[in-house]
């Protein structure tokens, strides 16, 4: 039993880890079973004791086995959901040094108010596309009565509408005590970090990912590791290598119209990701803020594939603009409870106002119709963009657009440096270069929904000029 039969290219300690995990998964080792002593294992595997110690350390940190004083190493009887404990260190946010500003972003932000600049950087729809709805007419007294419908998890009518929408769109039955209303998806992410992770923990994300650009991870002392993507999404082989070498505690990803690449994780890859997360008992946070902006059928959400393994985040900021800062977390009840406690401790309570407005918007009789009109308009904008992009196709590889708000353009020629991207600022063409989300310097994210016919023509004309200059540099 305790020997490696096949010769593999992976390091021996990794092979030992995989073998023990397999034994636990196929029932050869049962929860509570004791593993042989380290010295014995080293003899069986014919390796140094340090190799065995290394493998067991990894298994402990992945949560598969536990070390108990006096009784050696035993197979863990719990799972990740039970082993996490609430931990709130929001104060450290204020004691840390300010997050250093990205110089490119600083310059870009100064240009955002310049009337000559074309803003394809901002991550939301232009005002003209945001579906309209009538504000509810409440008296002050009526609003105060609505306030009574607030629970620690949020305004109950809004929670219920979200449950219904999740049930129709994702075919998952969730109850109100599995939904926590937050002030946007970013706050949702912040709460999850506080409750599920500790300073020094490692998280796997896509490479590139918009999460790199958020200061909340650095402030909480969380290490982010990017996993290469291919046409189907995050590469599972690369993710597994990372899990084995970096003690990954959580996987956070944005499988539907990913920010920044706009890409969609395939159904096959979603299933492979779930299998891997089950193998290592790693929870997944699925950020799905663009899910409702789809032109065609989309694969099932990760939450639908594995309801207890996946924590789902949604937000209204993408369809209603960022002034409605309303988002939500869908997870198992015990985790929601802990997140809600953390939210109260941090005094992150949300006034009933935006929640009543969000509820009105979602239950408006024209909502479905408005939603369909919006998707139709996005489709036309995407087609117009792709048509215009034929003029620059020799210089830029352009991603498909099947929904969401982003298209990704990759430079086809020589290596570009950060400095090269300053030409875009000089031309007042505001886009997001890939280096904001990754170590890559060859691509850019463009919010195609913010272009009118006129700005689209200007964009492609300017891009042709810039490309000529880049080719010469
Ligand atoms: C993929 C993704 N998730 C989450 C967010 C944050 O959403 P919210 O505005 O609801 O905080 C953004 C915003 O840009 C995003 O692009």
From TrEMBL:
Keywords: Aminotransferase, DNA-binding, Pyridoxal phosphate, Transcription, Transcription regulation, Transferase. Pfam families: Aminotran_1_2, GntR. Residues 10-78 form the HTH gntR-type domain. It comes from the Bacteria. SUPFAM superfamilies: PLP-dependent transferases, Winged helix' DNA-binding domain. GO terms for molecular function: DNA binding; DNA-binding transcription factor activity; pyridoxal phosphate binding; transaminase activity. InterPro entries: Aminotransferase_I/II_large, HTH_trans_reg/aminotransferase, PyrdxlP-dep_Trfase, PyrdxlP-dep_Trfase_major, PyrdxlP-dep_Trfase_small, Tscrpt_reg_HTH_GntR, WH-like_DNA-bd_sf, WH_DNA-bd_sf. In the C-terminal section; belongs to the class-I pyridoxal-phosphate-dependent aminotransferase family. PANTHER family: HTH-TYPE TRANSCRIPTIONAL REGULATORY PROTEIN GABR, TRANSCRIPTIONAL REGULATORY PROTEIN. This is HTH gntR-type domain-containing protein. It comes from Enterococcus malodoratus ATCC 43197.
């Amino acid at each position: 039993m305790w020997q490696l039969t096949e010769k593999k290219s992976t390091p021996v300690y990794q092979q030992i880890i995989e073998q023990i995990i397999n034994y636990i998964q196929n029932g050869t080792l049962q929860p509570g079973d004791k593993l042989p002593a380290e010295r014995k294992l080293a003899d069986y595997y014919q390796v140094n004791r340090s190799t065995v110690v290394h493998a067991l350390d990894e298994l402990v940190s992945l949560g598969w086995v536990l070390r108990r004083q006096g009784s050696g190493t035993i197979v863990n009887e719990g799972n990740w959901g039970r082993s996490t404990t609430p931990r709130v260190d929001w104060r450290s946010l204020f004691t840390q040094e300010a997050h250093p500003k990205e110089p490119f972003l600083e310059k870009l932000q100064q240009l955002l108010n310049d009337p000559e600049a074309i803003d394809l950087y901002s991550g939301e729809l232009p005002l003209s596309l945001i579906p309209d709805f009538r504000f509810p007419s409440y008296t002050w007294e009526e609003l105060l009565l609505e306030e009574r419908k607030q629970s620690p998890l949020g305004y109950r009518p809004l929670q219920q509408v979200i449950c219904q929408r999740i049930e129709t769109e994702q075919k998952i039955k969730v109850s109100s005590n599995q939904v926590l209303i937050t002030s946007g998806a970013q706050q949702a992410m912040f709460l999850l970090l506080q409750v599920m992770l500790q300073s020094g923990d490692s998280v796997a994300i896509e490479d590139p990912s918009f999460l790199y650009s958020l200061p909340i991870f650095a402030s909480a002392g969380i290490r982010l590791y990017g996993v290469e993507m291919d046409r189907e999404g995050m590469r599972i082989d690369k993710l597994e290598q990372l899990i084995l070498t970096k003690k990954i505690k959580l996987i956070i990803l944005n499988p539907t119209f990913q920010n920044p690449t706009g890409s969609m994780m395939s159904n096959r890859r979603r299933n492979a990701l779930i299998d891997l997360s089950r193998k290592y008992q790693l929870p997944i946070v699925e950020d799905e803020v663009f899910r409702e902006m789809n032109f065609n059928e989309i694969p099932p959400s990760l939450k639908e594939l594995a309801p207890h393994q996946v924590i789902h985040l949604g937000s209204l900021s993408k369809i209603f603009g960022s002034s409605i800062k309303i988002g939500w977390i869908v997870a198992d009840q015990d985790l929601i409870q802990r997140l809600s406690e953390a939210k109260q401790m941090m005094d992150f309570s949300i006034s009933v106002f935006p929640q009543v407005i969000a509820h009105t918007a979602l239950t408006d009789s024209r909502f479905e119709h408005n939603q369909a009109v919006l998707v139709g308009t996005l489709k036309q904008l995407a087609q117009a963009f792709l048509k215009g992009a034929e003029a620059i196709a020799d210089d830029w590889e352009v991603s498909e657009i099947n929904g969401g708000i982003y298209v990704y353009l990759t430079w086809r020629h020589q290596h570009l440096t950060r400095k090269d991207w300053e030409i875009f600022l000089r031309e007042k063409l505001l886009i997001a270069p890939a280096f904001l989300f990754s170590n890559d310097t060859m691509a850019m994210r463009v919010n195609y929904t913010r272009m009118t016919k006129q700005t689209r023509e200007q964009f492609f004309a300017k891009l042709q000029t810039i490309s000529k200059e880049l080719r010469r540099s």
